[in-house]
Model the fold of this input.
Amino acid sequence: MAAGRARRLLGSLWIALLLGQPDPAGAAARSGSQSLLTGSLVRTFTPLYFLVEPTDVLSVRGASVVMNCSAYCETAPKIEWKKDGTFLNLVSDDRRQLLPDGSLLINSVVHSKHNKPDEGYYQCVATVESLGTIVSRTAKLTVAGLPRFSSQPEASSVPKGSSAILNCEVNADLAPFVRWEQDRQPVLLDERVYKLPSGALIVSNATDTDGGLYRCVIESGGTPKYSDEAELKVLPDPEEPQDLMFVRQPSSLTKLTGQSAVFPCVAVGFPVPYIRWTRNEEELITEGSGRFLLLAGGSLEISEVTEQDAGTYTCIADNGNDTIEAQAELTVQVPPEFLKRPANIYAHESMDIVFECEVTGKPTPTVKWVKNGDMVIPSDYFKIIKEHNLQVLGLVKSDEGFYQCIAENDVGNAQAGAQLIILDLDVAIPTLPPTSLTSATNDHLAPATTGPLPSAPRDVVATLVSTRFIRLTWRTPVSDPQGDNLTYSIFYTKEGINRERVENTSRPGETQVMIQNLMPETVYVFRVVAQNKHGPGESSAPLKVATQPEVQLPGPAPNIRASATSPTSVTVTWETPLSGNGEIQNYKLYYMEKGQDTEQDVDVAGLSYTINGLKKYTEYSFRVVAYNKHGPGVSTQDVVVRTLSDVPSAPPQNLTLEVRNSKSIMLHWQPPPAGTHSGQITGYKIRYRKVSRKSDVTESIGGTQLYQLIEGLERGTEYSFRVAALTVNGTGPATDWVSAETFESDLDETRVPEVPSSLHVRPLVTSIVVSWTPPENQNIVVRGYAIGYGIGSPHAQTIKVDYKQRYYTIENLDPSSHYVITLKAFNNVGEGIPLYESAVTRPHSDTSEVDLFVINAPYTPVPDPSPMMPPVGVQASILSHDTIRITWADNSLPKNQKITDARYYTVRWKTNIPANTKYKTANATTLSYLVTGLKPNTLYEFSVMVTKGRRSSTWSMTAHGTTFELVPTSPPKDVTVVSKEGKPRTIIVNWQPPSEANGKITGYIIYYSTDVNAEIHDWVIEPVVGNRLTHQIQELTLDTPYYFKIQARNSKGMGPMSEAVQFRTPKAESSDKMPNDQASGSAGKGSRPVDIGADYKPPLGGSNSPHGSPTSPLDSNMLLVIIVSVGVITIVIVVIVAVFCTRRTTSHQKKKRAACKSVNGSHKYKGNSKDVKPPDLWIHHERLELKPIDKSPDPNPIMTDTPIPRNSQDITPVDNSMDSNIHQRRNSYRGHESEDSMSTLAGRRGMRPKMMMPFDSQPPQQSVRNTPSTDTMPASSSQTCADHQDLESTTGSYLANAQEEDSAQNLPTAHVRPSHPLKSFAVPAVPPAGSAYDPALPSTPLLTQQAPAHPVHSVKTASIGTLGRTRPPMPVVVPSAPDVQETTRMLEDSESNYEPDELTKEMAHLEGLMKDLNAITTA
Done:
């Protein structure tokens, strides 16, 4: 109620004031205070400030010093002094006393080496009782030291008219007390004779009167101190020129604003030099300038220095013969100045206030706050915010007083203050007008109204309590249940502290509030007061709430630094952070490549870590998080560092050559792929050479442009070029050599071009699209094309276009009009023969799709936006396995297809595998686009559209392109090894093609070994053709673990190997096998029957079926009859063949012998054998080294022998006689105990002869290889001739390439050409006429290897790729009665393939077969 009465009284007084009471503002002005109302309901601000503040003083020992100070207030303030922060007791001090105005007088300054009681910092303190205290700026009293000379004058001479300098260096604080004497008389200083601030004396334009004895004197109180005397001699003018030199140069200075600066500069020489000055390389005008003065000898004085005077000053001495310069820096410092001073503040208790203070200076000042003369120490309730401002939280009555902002830097300090008055809660806070310089201001009060006040809010509870915030809710007071117009003030304080803070609700009627910025694990007391329009009501009962304790996690690690140590590594260091109540356990270092969004991390135990494996010349960001037992702490700020540069790691891309003429070739390329530059590309190195002289290489280093014209070449010569990118670190890898041949002669321009080879027109409504192709004779220069057109005549209009252009759109034509168009090619000689065409433009009413292409038709109303014409002539040029260049033309462009507007093109592309692939798009602003990141060996389709503003075209016609193949990037998958049923020594390897084949798989290599850790060249290899996914390996050792790897190959090379798969062979052979089962069915060393399918009926000798199941033996009598019949028929056939072949021409014999290969290792084909194409890969056993040979368009690619090591001692020498060969073959069936011991992996490896493997995409061909031989074998026994024929598997596995073969219309038939009389034939199968090829079935091995009893004679065979000559399949003789047709075909083939000198060997071969068969039957 008392508060209400006070408000009513205040309101009546306010009304009386408005009705004409005397103006109190005038009284306030007169009295110097800001009184508003009699009765002081609102107290006024009382001025208290300094009239004079102490300044820095330099004194000498024994002198008297006055430190000035004077303060103003209505009540005379009490003045006290502090020295170095401690109050001086002046009552009992006989040397220091307080003057009436408040200044401090120090009599007879005391100063010695060990006693300096008067030197220090002084501060004046003014206090008014019951009002407050203010402090002045601090002033420094410096006492000059004892007189000492650091350098003294020395005897010197000076030519008449020149300048001399006499040194007298003393301490800086003594320099003002230095004076000079000449011949013991004071020196009069003028424009010619000048004393520098350091004490030195300059004598310029010397005259005879300047000669004499000079000394300097220090008069700092007490006895003067004299230096040594030095004589200055004045010499006559020199007759000869003397070198120009400085005897005193300017030195850098640091000055305060308002001070003077002197740059000494004295130069001597003859002629006498002239001195001038520049500032920041601009001429300095000293004549007529008020602040820049040229002193004696040329020194420069700058008075009243400002910040703008800072810079580099250069003294230039010039005597006509020479010029010399000397430089010095002027640094200007600025004492603190206030941009914004603190303002007086009214407030209530529990409020939060902020005193604002903005300062400037150089160096940047620091700010501290003083309340009533005492330093404000930052705490929970007094905080420094925004660097300079003071925030006081939860005001209490004792916070009243004077607050001062004190700014300080190296060169000075300043203070500014304001007063805080805390009003009673029932007194409204006046709204102050804008700050003015008048001491009297009016305080405005809002009129109060009377009425009922709200009662206390009910049920105050804390609904959410955290570590640093609490949410309070309450119900409305009983007096106002609705509470829609009530606002609330929440008062809170720490328990046991009487300083309350207040938080107000944000809108009327709100009954909850969030109190933030609390301290963890602290008890707070809250109360809530409701307010209505009449004022605040009753307070709620106090509520005590304790905040939650905070888990103390580590803070951020200080001083984190990252430095690149190499192109791929960065070292990060940091210091131990504050961890609170848990020791640091470890750190986690996070790093991320700039521009990426995935962060990597690594655990670190120490305070530094080096991260390796980073990308070269790439920016990375790093941050560190410390961990203690509570978990991760606060992360540091990110630090960014770039790894060091290196040479580029990839060559430039897409090197193309354009032959310009007979002596120059233009090179174009693109930079290395992004991410491989390893630094800033500084240029490109081009190396080129003649193809005929590979050792003679020329280098050319260019700039960063992506093209280079190489000139001065020889005409008609093929050159190879390669390009490498350069960084500051060196040269990166170069591209492959790319060749081009200069023209034999430059293009002819002695005559006009010929007629263009074609001309096409496409009429639209108001335009005609013209397209053409250049003249067929490309040897004549074409400079461009001339297009003429007109109605009925082609001579009305003529347009000329560039020679590269192939399209043009003639626009602004009349609809439904007949135009004649002519096209001529021209050069500098003239125009060539014209080509004519006519066209009728379409009528206005034509609504066909060509209306889409109407461009700028003036007579046809076109809706906006109208569609644009789609790009035409879209072409896809394959550049690499992942890059295709798309080019197109735009018929809506004028003339030279140059884009001058803001149109852009959208390129889209996709692949049809899988079918649901989405389109990818990219925008381009030129007529081409480089599509990268494609998959190898994949067909893509491309289309283009053009957009200009809101108009766009439809998609163009599609172009297709298949990227080049790439080596497989993944190994064959699902590799499994199983034992063959009934044959424990034989295993079957199965696999699936690589998931990333990147091209057609042309072959596989199976590696196997008993030692998984053996070097790869020590593994045994088995080649397999590319369309097979299974393979049998025979003659393995029982109860032995083997390891298998598979490698795939396409036309680009070998892919990675699969992981090793282990398989252990069984311990014993199955009991149902025949004793000689290993030898059964094997008709020669190393032969392997062709896998011919399930319809094959095995021969009668009990040989194994392709699936390894033994066949039942037939009646021996029947077998004998069949064998004898076969023998007789064979002998008859051989005799007939012998008679026929003896008549073969000698030339044919030479051709056949040219294709022969010798058993001793000569596997190369002669270059003139045009019908022979060797396989892609040869594997021998002298060295195990795979050399893939990419397919070449040349029909005679060079073959590469790739030997594999073998042990010659493991090979049984072969005798020259046929009988010994046959005897060997018989023994191989019976077996020898001595040779069984060699049935090991090493023995198998040692006996592997040279082999050829099919890895091209041609249908493979079977070749039965020669028996092993040593170098000691006679040449006569090692020469044989093998005509290689195309072999097509009965399973039809090679039908994919049937279009390459002339005989593709026939059903595939397995056929084998014997290449040596000692080699057996594999048994073919005649497929059923209706058999169809099912590609879904898994393919089986072309050859199944038999297992002879003696590994010494074990020879594995491999298929040979197509050799280019197509022949009909040749059925092979088998030990059963053939029908007449087969015999006839065999005879015909024999006639075409055998020579007389081979027939003798064939006869012996057949006899050996007969004997072998007899041996089998008798056995």
Observations:
- Residues 1116-1141 form the longest helix (26 residues).
- Residues 168 and 232 are 14 Å apart (CA to CA).
- The mean pLDDT is 75.
- The two ends are 138 Å apart (CA to CA).
